Amino acid sequence: MSNVNRQLRLFATIPPAVGASDYRAVVRDAAKAAESAGMFGALVYSDNHTVDPWLVAQEVITATEAFEPLIALQPIYSHPSTIAKIVASYAHVYGRRICLNLVAGGVRGDLTALNDETEHDRRYARLTEYTSLILRLLTDTEPVTFGGEFYRVRDLTLHPRMPQDLLPGLYMSGSSTAGRKAGEEIGAISVRYPSPREAVAEIDESAPRSGGVRIGIIARDTDDEAWTVAHRRFPRTRAGRIQQMLIRGLSDSHWFEQLSTEDEFPGGPESPYWMGPFLTSATYCPYLVGSHDKVEAEIARYVSAGCRDFVLDTAHEESDYAAYTESFDRVLARQPLA
User: For the chain, what is the largest distance between any 2 Cα atoms, rounded to a whole number of angstroms?
Assistant: First the structure.
């Protein structure tokens, strides 16, 4: 059993529902396997094309003992009082904590379909106000009156009351100036999609234990073995590249634009950093591919820079979960944290 969660928080990613004939079983099996491997929780996606994330979170909770769903939360989908009630209800019914992955943007077509024309930086201002009201409702002992630009309530009381030891963990996806500012105001852990040249510098700007990265990992005994697996899982396709270019044109996300300008191997031929799956629209984060020593040396750079939270890409096999935690265990064995 991994001991990594004593020092780091590793999140898996719940697989999407695409092609699943029994999605409930997919969710439960992924959550149980990730928790059994020693992971802390799992990211649950939320957009116009996915299963409701709160229903997925319920399956994650009932399938596990202490695993924490990390739910992508976009203000356009629910009023903040609704979210506060759901979070408090999970705590009341299951005695479990929810983590929130705060998201300001998305594919422009999804936002337009919901008649949301709010421009980029204003969405982060809205997200800050949104989260602030959720936290007020979860923590204030008196009825809440809130007069913001985007949300207003008067003498609103949350029922059931929220146990203060189960307040949600807050994470913020965003690499723009507006995104970083919003994360600081809310007190959320900033999750980046790092480039090989900038990752350490970006995390160093954050306070200790405040940085997180979103990345995929494929590590094997040798580079050749790892790359064989990588190319089998993420074959290069022209259709995928065209799809990525279309998504880029529909997104105003700073991190997506930044990563879209990277080469396939931006760290050079000896670096494990690989943009192939992102550039062919197979997934939405960079990958580290190579021998255990090479991949773990790169992970160690993030840990040395203060990163304590890792949101890992969707596993392709159940054995991937144990492989993830084993890699981080070896990093910590060589590089114990204070």
Answer: 63
